[in-house]
Amino acid sequence: MAIPVETFYLNPDGQGTLQAQIQQMIAAGILSGRFRVGEKLPSSRKLARHLGVSRITVTLAYTELLANDYLVSRGRSGYFVSENAPIPPTYDPPAATEDNVDWSRALARSFTGGDTPRKPADWHSFRFPFIYGQADPTLFDHANWRLCALRALGQRDFASMTGDYYDEDDPLLVEFIARNTLPRRGITARPTEILITLGAQNALWLTAQILLNRRRKAAIEDPCYYSLRDLLMQARCPLTPVAVDADGLPPAAIPDDTDVIFTTPSHQSPTTATMPLDRRRALLDRAREIDALIIEDDYEFEMAFLGAPSPALKSLDRDGRVIYIGSFSKSLFPGLRLGYLVGSEAFIREARALRASVLRHPPGHIQRTAAYFLSLGHYDAQIRRMASVLHRRRRTIEKAIEEHGLTVAGRGVYGGSSLWMQAPPGSDTARLAEILRERSVLIEPGAPFFAGEDRPTHFYRLGYSSIPSSRIPEGIHRIAQALAS
Amino acid sequence: MAIPVETFYLNPDGQGTLQAQIQQMIAAGILSGRFRVGEKLPSSRKLARHLGVSRITVTLAYTELLANDYLVSRGRSGYFVSENAPIPPTYDPPAATEDNVDWSRALARSFTGGDTPRKPADWHSFRFPFIYGQADPTLFDHANWRLCALRALGQRDFASMTGDYYDEDDPLLVEFIARNTLPRRGITARPTEILITLGAQNALWLTAQILLNRRRKAAIEDPCYYSLRDLLMQARCPLTPVAVDADGLPPAAIPDDTDVIFTTPSHQSPTTATMPLDRRRALLDRAREIDALIIEDDYEFEMAFLGAPSPALKSLDRDGRVIYIGSFSKSLFPGLRLGYLVGSEAFIREARALRASVLRHPPGHIQRTAAYFLSLGHYDAQIRRMASVLHRRRRTIEKAIEEHGLTVAGRGVYGGSSLWMQAPPGSDTARLAEILRERSVLIEPGAPFFAGEDRPTHFYRLGYSSIPSSRIPEGIHRIAQALAS
């Protein structure tokens, strides 16, 4: 590849002769790894014109670099980076500037820290990845996704892919969600009551920014999804963790002064408890009584292979009090970053305005691709295939767990893709996870899900959405071994 | 298409017999447009099992709907939505719930309003669209973008497309930006000093959240990009608009107590002024003197067809004081939503954490597609092609403007894709735009770019990135006509 002439700049504060500066610039580019072996330099004529120097200056610099073995000449084809030049494997230039800014003072707010654990990016290389929420490439209908993406990249859809929509969404995707996805949860919503988000994370974040501040109180489930707790901490609202039981969030335990209730009724995260219909009604009554809003995170409802999922809380809402969050992260793949918010128009209008300010809109091309994948029926086929595989894995993992005498603390009654597990009291599952990692087993320690200082350390989560059935027994065997020792 | 059985739900609070409820549910689905003419209903056996009712109940409901002409029966193939059923063109269900929430009280903050104008989404249908910042489908290398997208959708890249990266970016894209894009601006940066964002809007927003609050003061150019002013108002920081001159932002006019300076030195937005090298140095000196940070929005630097763009302000930064924002919106297309932030590691770390909380990461597939398009050289070819077309359009528009005696208030010395125009003092270009819209001409009124109450109303912007050369003369003619009348 030729190195574009536009990437050459003389430092306006440069020292020495122009020829020396050009030599230095090219040598520095080679030494930092910016230029690679075999790449072609611009002709002396071109570079001279670009830098505004005489051609002989460039020629002399090139000749000097040739003599020092940084470059080789291939006659009339020009100059190339030499094989003998000392080039690092990746581009890692020396720090360009000293940092003379006092960042501890310059930052108005800090967002680092928090409970969200850093998961191993190389989970594919583990033999027994009992991880949660990552796509299993073997389950995804890759061929049809590609066809839908191609169609969305066609001339006809070009405008929807390339245009700036300001604050709008792809109308095809919104209509499909309204007509086909939400009715599966018993929800009736107009397009103006729906907003596409960059995944459920983005939906939760938007909701927190709009409904909460230092004076508004939020109630969250305990344990709960750690990233939710982190983003609420950033919203700086007072937080009350409410301990969940085998039926999920107990309405009576929600404090009277709560403004917003975050809940996962279909499949409590992480305990997997499903909230029974009676409690759903009680929760709605409680919210009405204290005039609170409810944020229903309905993740993973599609993975219902043991029985039909209950209708969403939102479907029972007669007040416009429930804001519903759906996502395609589990059923398609998380890297897609597509989710949606459903709520009253007054709320969706604000969420749309905030989203426009933060990022405008989710990329048009992925919205259109998803719309095609959904509307051509591939999504339904995909869900059925995933459900049947997950069902098989669930039977296998439950059998193995029973054989090895491990203790299940929670399992979704209608399906899901994980089990909530309990090691003997006093165990430290963070330590357990470290030991197991050495044995090519990944599990998720439970402590980060809990609020407060004194967190139970003996829970852990076993995901079965990314591990083939055939490896489950040996994986569980290794967990049992590690627990025993 | 068959209507999936999963989309049928009986209202748990439903009135009347089960048969009546089923009839009502199906009729309501048809009347709201949820079910379309010709769609197949589930078999009575399937629906009965799904709803947990007896099959005869469903059969009786279907028979009744058949009699009322909502459904037709096609013998053994089953029941279909009848052509005679009254079906609205789009799905528009009646409001499901009364809104019993007092949203004026429930919203902790409002994000609607602001200066960002709503532009016509149907700009394609105007003959003379002098609009700014939309992609011209005729200039985009659609075929190679498709090939890159396909490659990024291949099996080998599946993990990068589908995985949850938490807070990471595509390393291929980051390395390309570091090695090839930033050097064109004279900038040396390590991968840890780069963050991919959902477009420049997202980069500006992240920066404002991290560096500003109610006590930190920001200086902005006046006029400036209206969405920047809107998002800074949302960050609630005190704002000082500093009037720009023909060389852009005058450093001496920046107040001593400024914490963060937002500037567009390459191509002032919207006046298109290019800041000379001396003033760039003076601006850096001024920032050092008052210990302020500088946010450099380097949009559109690629459109340099009249001369090489000056090196970025960031390339002269010796303190780590400049945070640089780049974008692919203008050079690829805005719907892509890809931009990047370059700054000190301490800053990028916070921006990464905040981005993770807000949306995790930009979709993997679009990052990888862009990385291929860039690294295979298609991007450079695209830029060259765009530059040559824009150059031709620029000559055409300047000639037409001269012929019709219109007044240019600012034109980019090295290129760009717009001109900043001036109507006679006292004109109202918002009104002018309305009149022109009737004549199939789109222009952008200038007032929203200005801060404060008493905004000049006689400026307007003419973009030439979406209008073919051949239409420019007639478009300018119509503008001159409208101005004369």
UniProtKB/TrEMBL annotation, chains A, B:
PROSITE patterns: HTH_GNTR (PS50949). The keyword Amino-acid biosynthesis does not apply. Residues 16-84 form the HTH gntR-type domain. One of its GO terms (molecular function) is pyridoxal phosphate binding. Keywords: Aminotransferase, DNA-binding, Pyridoxal phosphate, Transcription, Transcription regulation, Transferase. The keyword DNA-binding applies. Pfam families: Aminotran_1_2, GntR. SUPFAM superfamilies: PLP-dependent transferases, Winged helix' DNA-binding domain. In the C-terminal section; belongs to the class-I pyridoxal-phosphate-dependent aminotransferase family. This is GntR family transcriptional regulator / MocR family aminotransferase. It comes from Jhaorihella thermophila.
